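Long-time lurker. I teach an intro course on protein structure, and each term I like to show students one example going from raw sequence to a predicted 3D structure in token notation. This year I'd like something fresh instead of my usual example. Would anyone be willing to generate the tokens for the chain below so I can use it in lecture? Attribution to the forum is fine with me.
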Amino acid sequence: MASLVLELQQSAMSVDQHVKDLLRKAFVVATKLGLEDFQAWCTAEMNGYTSEVPSYRMVKGELKAWNPYNGWIPVIMGDVKSQEILSKRAIGQPIGELEDISLNARSGALQIPLPPRIIETNFSDSEFYRLGMVPTLLVGKNSVVGILEAVRNKILTWSLDLEKNGILGEDLTFSKKEVQAASNVTYNIENFSGVLGNISNGQIQIGDYNSIHAELKKLGISQTERNILEEILDQLPKATDNQRDGLLQKGRDWLMRNASSLGTLSETIRKWFETV
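-- Reply from a regular --
Happy to contribute to a lecture. Here you go:
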């Protein structure tokens, strides 16, 4: 009879096996073994991250703006630390979307637009922006491929750990002994971290809103409501005590208006307000 774990290893080693399909197989194995942490990781990779992301999903690119005469030109900020922060981005999209991007990208660089609020705060006074050249983040296609390879390698390593502990499975089932053995082993998946920190001089905080923007759109939250939330999260880090109270109340009102559409994401956003 075929071993489910050994089959997973073979799939992980095959360059012809799509990572999104590999994740589904890993999800089946984790579910049948009752390994909730690995199951949750597979789910997040398949459906996308709504809050914090693993460190291997942090990518770095170059800030550039499109000049109609000279093509892409570098964007140089006076604050080196701010430029460093804006050059990094958390990629929370589902693994299937990233795989499609890596396969279908026409060039070696991918464009990741900056949120309007960040552009306004950091570049509205710059000459190139007044001339209609909007900064964006260009990330090498190899960065996306790196995320895919990190996921593939984690599944391979995990499946090898299962085999090492005598957990192989038969067809689509595992014995009670194997399930018990799996529960007694700790499998290190990934340390999760925040998306990005604060830009120096208290200018702006980015990361949290960026990480949920796609999910808010998917849930049907209107553009107006998304803009309101982004503005609240943008202003909170630099607000005075009196301003903070008003912003937090505005945030609570926002949650109440949108609670029926947010589902479990509502709890994530509420915790952000509590930690400010």
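Some talking points for your students: Confidence is low (pLDDT under 50) at residues 191-207. The first helix runs from residue 4 to 13.
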